[in-house]
Amino acid sequence: MSDPAVPDQAEPRRRPPDREAARAERQQLREERRKLQEERESMRAERRRLLDARARAADPSAAAEWTIEPPPVADDAPPALVATDVRVSFRPFVDVKPTLRQALRFRRIRAAHPVVALDGVSLSVRKGEALGVIGTNGAGKSTLLQVLAGTLPPDSGTVDVYGARPALLALGVGFNRQLSGRRNIYLGGLATGLRKADIDEMFDDIVEYADIGEAIDRPVSTYSSGMFARLAFAVAIRNEPDILLLDEVMSVGDEGFRAKSVKTMEGILEQAGTIIIVSHGLGKMKDLCSRVAWLDRGKIRMIDEPGPVIRSYRRFLGVDASPPDDD
Length: 327
Known about the structure:
alpha/beta
């Protein structure tokens, strides 16, 4: 019996024409969106220039108070997220120093007093609004974001979300530092609800936005904090979430990345998206946010426009009450 014929070498796989056309159409839409964003940014810059000139004419000493204004939010804008009387407490455990006999038999543990992370927090965030959350370490800021994102159920209270589930971006969450940046793009994308096919199509855009070059194939454990932040932000932002929760992300990365991320967030707000930012960078809060909430020991002490809240918070810390231009 003769051997079966050896099949010809398979031709390289090619994308179906309809997928190529769809990809070209998406690329064209992205380009049009970029041009529109540049036009809007130019209009904002001209508006800021006019406001600054008007401020100098009225009071030269007040000119320094004019900063980038966030997109205006209508008073009757529908809510995007409403938290009502949210309470969260943790019950830690501490070790009792055992005797030698007890140490040999077992390790005795006793419960400590519960730690109250959030104590009756209520707030409402409107669509198209950027809300900043400030406070000292341990005030409950990260816990609040986890509750709003739905990753941590509260002990009591409710969180009503009007739209898609919020996307939480915190450094280190959803990433495996032992894997390469390439694999972490898929891990992070799947964690935000994307399908593998969606990530395949977005992959090149994510790598370009993160701008980490050949490091995409290196383990994430070798990245600097700035490189890690760029990759994590690029993955989260490609999902185009209705509500974006940022936990201490704006303070890392170089100036170019910060400017790019701020421009991206401004685009989200203009499309009636919602952003909640936790950061110690008070200058960025004043520039980007329309309101700021001051959280202290699990309670909201003040929520208002950025200027008054930041000044009160800095007086509380015992430092200069004037908000910094940039942190």
